[in-house]
Amino acid sequence: MITLLKNTMTATLLLSTLLSAKEVPDSDEGLHSHRPMLELKERAEEKVKSKKNALDILDKVLSPFEDMTEYALDKDMSSMKKGYKNIELLEDSGLLAASTSDGVTTQILQDIESLETYINTKNYLKVALLSTKLFKTIVNNFAYSNYVNNQIHIESLDGMGFEILSLISNKEVNFDQIQSIINEAQKSWMFLRDDMQDENAIDSFDLLFKALSHATIKHDKDMLKILASMDLALVDVIEQLFQ
């Protein structure tokens, strides 16, 4: 818990730095002006620093909910309780509210309260589903997404895998809902695909989406579980390509 508190304090400092750099201009600003090249270089360096800070903050606010989903799917009550304490620390730090859009903050805090209820009643399915909802809400409403646009789309692919794994753990699976999730995530994939050079990675994700849709049509829960896990593994590969 001490380590998490230190990490939260570090993330708060990063947020402060990011806020101070919120008006960093686009890299092409000033190319036709008479500003000294040194000033342009400093602005470029500031933009790089802001991107790094945004990535660090995004990781800090998403990780506890990603972890909670995994704990719930594994039905690991001990880890779920520890994970919830980490979420409380994140909430108390103010970092979560400061790094998401104002319109969703109240709903996020309400969902966190509901999460505690589901943990205490050992409702693993609802913990998994609500954790994935919180994960997606943060991704879709991250206040500094303009600095890390590619990473936002990568996280959307990650969210697809966790959400499918959560949904198929239910006795009655809503396959139409799963197909909608796949369709939405595919938009993020197409955005990333245009900026990729690795043909093997491109082919892998193209085939993955075809297989996911096929398994959904066939109502094949076992295959969906395999493919959703494959998605999570491939996301790690994609993430490395964009670093």
- What's the pLDDT, averaged over the residues? 86
Number of strands: 0
In total, the number of domains comes to 1
Output the number of helix runs: 10
Strand content: under 5%
Pick out the low-confidence regions.
Answer: 19-34
| N- to C-terminal distance | 29 Å
Order of helices and strands: HHHHHHHHHH
Radius of gyration: 19 Å
Largest sheet: none
Quaternary form: single chain
Shape: globular
- Assign a percent range to the helix content: over 70%
Kindly list the characteristics that best describe this protein.
globular; mainly alpha; single chain; 79% helix; 243 residues
Tell me what the structure shows.
The protein has helices at residues 2-20, 37-73, 77-93, 95-98, 102-120, 124-140, 149-167, 175-193, 199-217, 221-241. The chain has one domain (2-16, 35-241). By secondary structure, the chain is an all-alpha fold. The protein is 79% helix and 0% strand.
SSE layout:
Layout: H1 2-20, H2 37-73, H3 77-93, H4 95-98, H5 102-120, H6 124-140, H7 149-167, H8 175-193, H9 199-217, H10 221-241
Helix pairs in contact: 1-2, 1-3, 2-3, 2-6, 2-7, 3-5, 5-6, 6-7, 7-8, 7-10, 8-9, 9-10
Write a brief structural summary:
The chain is mainly α and 243 residues long. It has ten helices and no strands. It has one domain (2-16, 35-241).
